[in-house]
Amino acid sequence: MSNTGRAHVLRALSCLLRYPTEEVVAASVEIRAAVDAEPALDAVCRAGLHDLIAAFDAVDKGAADLLDLQEAYVAQFDRAKSLSLHLFEHVHGESRDRGQAMIDLRNMYEQQGLALAVSELPDFLPVFLEYCGVLPRAEAVALLRQVAHIVAGLAQRLRARGSSYAAVLEAVCTLADMPIEPETTVNAGSAENDESDDFAALDRAWQEDPVVFGPDHGGCGGDRLIAKLRHGRRAAPQAPRRTAPGDGPDRHLTEGR
Questions:
Q1: Distance CA 17, CA 165 (A)
Q2: Quick one: DSSP state of residue 180?
Q3: Which three-class secondary structure state does DSSP give residue 39?
Q4: Cα–Cα distance, 222 to 130 (Å, whole number)
Q5: Do residues 15 and 35 touch, judged by C-beta distance below 8 A?
Q6: How far apart are the C-alpha atoms of 231 and 80, rounded to whole Å?
Q7: Torsion-angle region of residue 219: left (phi > 0), alpha (psi -120 to 50) or beta?
Q8: Contact yes or no for 256/228 (Cβ under 8 A)
Q9: Residue 222 contacts residue 215 (beta carbons within 8 Å)
Q10: pTM of the full predicted structure?
Q11: pLDDT, tens digit, for every residue of 31-61?
């Protein structure tokens, strides 16, 4: 597939992994179009993604409550370290190396013109996917392969919980040319923190951790991605072009989370 097409699907997956806001769920049509246009995703993978997109679509049409979708997101990604969408949580934990790794990653983004919102951390997986979307295909695949073992572990944990979000992580591995094998395992956090519904215990587990979990709940990162997805649908397929991330009135995905 063209570089432009691969960029669209990476942005679509980025949107699906962000905190669900009204703007994000309203982009379900664009997200579905990007997923369906990516030939690397097989029918099984697309069907899994369609399940999650359908949940977004139901909220957008008023058939489901956005608050329920948001609560489900928080329950999955904010209450278990082993399900954190912050990549360096699974690599550096709370070590000092994490800070320097954050700086290095942010510098990589800035070299490609990708400016983060104040509340976004560079190791947040949706941001990482957006960055990969502006790279040439070979570079993007190489970078995705570096984190594929982490993503595969997250996918398996989510799949074990019956979560529709597992399909998004599985799609990322497919785009990295490393589809998940049944025996794939990863050390993605301590098991004792995996199912924390005790809020006092949760506070104790995170009291010394400076990381702000998940997305910008104000929607800035997601809006940028959505704008780019919509722009990509309008662009003529025979004349793809790439612009710098952050263009457009919302500073969200203006190019053809």
A1: 8
A2: P
A3: coil
A4: 10
A5: no
A6: 35
A7: left
A8: yes
A9: yes
A10: 0.72
A11: 999 999 999 999 999 999 999 999 999 999 9
